[in-house]
Amino acid sequence: MITGSSSASVPEESLAALQQEVQQNLEQLKPNVMLETMKGWIPGLIAFGIKLLIALAIFAVGSRVIKVIYHMLNRSFTRMDMEISLRKFLLSVLNATMYCLLGFIIAGQIGVNSASIVALLGSASIAVGLAVQGSLANFAGGVLILMMKPFRVGDYIVSKDGEGTVHTIGLVYTVLNTVDNKQVVIPNGTLSNSPLTNVTAMDKRRVDIKIGIGYSSDLKRAKEILEQIYVNHPSILKEESIDIYVDDLGASSVTIGGRGWVATEDYWSTRWNMMEQIKLRFDEAGIEIPFNQLDVHIRSGNTETQNR
Question: pLDDT at position 7, please?
Fold first, then answer.
């Protein structure tokens, strides 16, 4: 009995000793594994640090280059007499574009896959473009108007959607002030894609007046009066030619006309004043200006009916 008990306790003592030995070996092995792992990280960390330093250097140099280009473009746009709203917009877009390019270069230097970023931005741009395509068309029209300058602020323009003096030219809409002090807002896409007339684009305009006189009136006297009105009017430019002519031999009148040049800002006042003078002078000279008349003839019926 004593011998059997002693043999049973031997394996338990051996197992405890084995466990203690394994624990000691693990404690000795753990620091070695962590150290080896950290040693494996060191080359990667050093490489990443070098890339990061290079990226910071690229950012510093690129920022300086972008600022230089920005100031050069600003001076160039100013010398071109570009509209201030367009100049600010283009400078902002170009500045943002240059910084985006710099960001892609830095991302590629660090190791980020820029192709996926470009694909994502492209998809987002397409979605946004489809959603606001009407506004983008107006925006593109505004850029074209500000760059090509078919009209400026203060010009009087005539388009199919309205006419008036240009008050403001925005990137999306153009605002006109009418002669009766109303504001007309027209999308730039419409203005850039349709014909329009810039009435005040030139320094001078020609005043064309045509008037009909009766066949029984004195044609030569009528031409003399019309010529005198043109020659003696203070707003008519004397250095430009004045033409008096017979324009048409109509069914009920002889149409005579005159041409003379005035400063653009004097056009309407001159035309209105000359039309009044023509009427008064023709009346004084007995020159008839034909107009439509309606003659009514009343017939009383035949003789047989009257006798009854």
Answer: 46
